[in-house]
Design goal:
3 domains; alpha+beta; Endonuclease III, domain 1; about 10% strand
């Protein structure tokens, strides 16, 4: 009873304060000029009760909560914060309610564009990748080659292929003069072989049209085979330090999260928005003219190391303070994934034939289509077709082939299951020869030919164990 009497005074005071505040709020709402965030009346009532003496109670937090609850009861209603009003912020000793920005609002609306480039460069100086082989020396040819190889392929995979390629073909004229078969052999295992064919065609176009060098012009670069807008911009910014924006997969992910851009980045409307953001950042006065190569690399590094597709490391990101996705807890949702589709499945018979000397029979693919111009083991769509070809072209008995474990391989537009069989001591019939795209190749010479990754893995794995399935799909 004594405690209840002692608490009655502060409760009445809190209720009176609350009633006064509500009256003031009604008057403010009725005035057209009323603006700004509203103070939370219950918090203020609790503060008033605390000032009246409840904060001296040993159970401080419980007493303030009790005073707030008593004030609500005295006012005749309970009140909860409306989640739609967003986060509370401290203002004048009480909490004021402010509206949380929408997902589509740009971080730049609050902080300006300048922070993006400057903070990204500061992070790159300490944590970026500065020792990649195409950075030393940084020539237009080496930058171009690296950009083509890095399309759809991770840096760790590219490094070895890049070094082997430039050792064999150190400059653009050497690439243009090389036969396509040599280029495909150097590319063998990297996948997406259209990149190699376009690289070779672009080198020859540069010899014919640009004096044997890459042109320092965006439109002229885009006109070359295999070079798009972002790749051309990356070449110009890294090789010559020109001010151009890039928008590869890593940068799309960074910008989609930073600016809170909904929608699949591959959709034209979404990509257009991302290009607008990329160009605005590249044009920022806070980006020094001499640091365009670093800025371009920094964007790619951030997307590859911190702002990754899965489990981004937001805690270490230099842009997290203004990142819409981080602020709204949507880093796992953005960018919006590509609409799912079920890839069709196909099957093929793979015929591994060796002659009496242990040479392997290879067949060159047509110049267009899947694995164009590459060398592979002969293939058939089904067992009946395989049987017919074996009987017409070879001395092999179809039923004598040793079945090997199936191989799964993914292309960008379908999944392929290969069923290999192996025959030893086989010869070709006289009417079938090199003119039919067939060639006996010694095992020691296999490395000199362009061979698709799953076929090369099969030949290297031996007859008893299947090669591991490829992690990245081919497009050709």
């Amino acid at each position: 009873m004594a405690d209840a009497a002692a608490a009655a005074g502060p409760v009445r005071l809190a209720a009176a304060v609350l009633a006064g505040l509500r009256g003031r709020d009604r008057r403010r709402r009725s005035a057209a000029a009323a603006t700004g965030p509203r103070r939370h009346p219950l918090r203020c009532a609790a503060a008033a009760a605390g000032a009246a003496g409840l904060v001296r109670h040993p159970g401080r937090r419980q007493s303030i909560a009790a005073a707030t609850g008593a004030a609500e009861h005295a006012a005749g209603r309970g009140q909860r914060r409306d989640p739609a009003r967003g986060r509370d912020r401290i203002r004048g000793g009480c909490r004021a309610v402010s509206r949380r920005p929408s997902t589509t609002e740009d971080a730049s609306s609050a902080t300006g564009e300048d922070g993006f480039a400057s903070r990204l460069l500061a992070w790159f100086d300490d944590h970026g990748r500065h020792d990649l082989p195409w950075q030393h020396p940084r020539t237009p040819y080496r930058v171009w080659l690296s950009e083509i190889m890095l399309q759809q392929t991770q840096v760790t995979t590219v490094i070895g292929y890049f070094q082997r390629f430039v050792d064999a073909l150190p400059d653009l004229p050497a690439l243009a003069a090389a036969p396509q078969e040599r280029v495909l052999a150097l590319w063998s295992g990297l996948g997406y072989y259209a990149r190699a064919r376009n690289l070779h065609a672009a080198a020859r176009a540069c010899v014919e049209q640009h004096g044997g060098a890459l042109p320092r012009d965006l439109d002229a670069l885009v006109a070359l085979p295999g070079i798009g807008r972002s790749t051309a911009a990356a070449i110009l910014s890294q090789a010559w330090g020109d001010r151009h924006a890039i928008l590869d997969g890593n940068v799309k992910r960074v910008l989609a999260r930073y600016h809170g851009v909904d929608g699949w980045p591959g959709a034209p409307k979404v990509e257009k928005r991302l290009w607008t953001h990329a160009e605005a950042h590249a044009a920022s006065p806070s980006l020094p003219d001499g640091r365009l190569p670093d800025y371009t690399q920094a964007q790619m590094d951030l997307g590859a190391t911190l702002c990754t597709r899965a489990n981004p490391t937001c805690l270490l990101c230099p842009l997290r303070g203004d990142c819409v996705a981080h602020r709204e807890g949507r880093s796992g949702e953005l960018p919006t994934p590509r609409p799912g589709k079920t890839l069709p499945r196909r099957e093929a018979q793979v015929l591994w034939l060796e002659d009496a000397d242990g040479r392997v029979l290879l067949q060159q693919r047509p110049p267009t289509g899947i694995w164009a111009s590459l060398w592979t083991l002969p293939q058939a769509d089904d067992e009946a077709q395989a049987r017919q070809w074996l009987q017409q072209a070879t001395t092999a008995a179809p039923e004598a082939g040793a079945a090997l474990p199936a191989i799964a391989h993914a292309f960008s537009h379908y999944r392929l299951t290969l069923h290999p069989r192996r025959w030893l001591g086989i010869a070709l019939r006289e009417r079938v020869g090199d003119n039919d795209g067939l060639r006996w190749v010694a095992r020691a010479q296999l490395g000199a030919l362009g061979i698709p990754a799953p076929i090369r893995k099969l030949l290297e794995s031996g007859p008893t164990s299947p090669p591991a399935p490829d992690a990245s799909p081919d497009t050709d």
